[in-house]
Design goal:
It holds the Pfam family FMN_red. By secondary structure, this protein is an alpha/beta fold. It has one domain (4-189): Flavodoxin domain (Rossmann fold, 3-Layer(aba) Sandwich). The chain has helices at residues 19-31, 41-44, 63-73, 91-97, 122-134, 149-152, 162-189; strands at residues 4-9, 35-40, 77-83, 109-114, 139-146. The chain has a 5-stranded parallel sheet with strand order 2-1-3-4-5, with helices on both faces.
Length: 193
């Protein structure tokens, strides 16, 4: 079965280490035949949230916002790549994602966290779990944490640790299970509201 998966990434920093994690996840999803859409906050750059997508009249939203809305609406699931900023998620990530709401409903999300330390950004992942749940995305139970990102992945996103490649397989198996299950429910029964 083939899935459409949107990968969200939110760092605006000039020396973005987390882009390696995003590239790694995109490559892993491509190897599993996902249609991957990369939603990079720096590239979409909607500015600080003033008006959500749903607050625009039909056909009135900026073109890039409309484009991403369509990708989110037609996605089977999401991978959210988050670095840890002050024990929380990046402001760019929360700002990008908060432009949407109903478009996410009843599609699963997998959390990928990273940091330069050995904790792998798990404190951000815990914050992100509550954020995504509030936006209508059930999160899978596994968190894919990448410690010491500067050493663990190459600039191109290639793994320098065999354990990462093994762990990512289990993480994506779980995500795909949820993508398939929730897709079937949406097709057979629609949304509960």
């Amino acid at each position: 079965m083939s899935f459409k998966t949107v990968v969200f990434y939110g760092s605006y920093r000039s020396d973005r280490q987390g882009i390696k994690a995003a590239r790694f996840m995109i490559d892993q999803l491509n190897q599993r035949n996902h249609e991957v859409i990369f939603a990079d906050a720096k590239e979409y750059d909607f500015g600080i949230l003033d008006r959500m997508y749903k607050e625009y009249g039909k056909g009135q939203a900026p073109a890039k916002m409309e484009e991403l809305a369509e990708h989110i609406r037609t996605a089977d699931g999401f991978v959210v790549v988050a670095g840890e900023y002050n024990h929380s998620i990046q402001p760019g990530l929360s700002n990008l994602m908060a432009h949407y709401l109903e478009e996410y409903f009843f599609r699963p999300a997998g959390i990928v966290s990273y940091s330069v330390s050995s904790f792998g950004g798990v404190r951000a992942a815990i914050q992100l779990r509550a954020f995504l749940s509030e936006m209508g995305m059930p999160t899978i139970s596994s968190i894919f944490a990448i410690s010491k990102i500067g050493e663990s992945l190459s600039e191109a996103g290639a793994s320098r640790e065999a354990a990462l490649t093994k762990r990512v397989g289990q993480f994506l198996d779980e995500l795909e299970w949820y993508e398939e299950a929730l897709l079937r429910q949406r097709k057979e029964k629609g949304n509960p509201f």
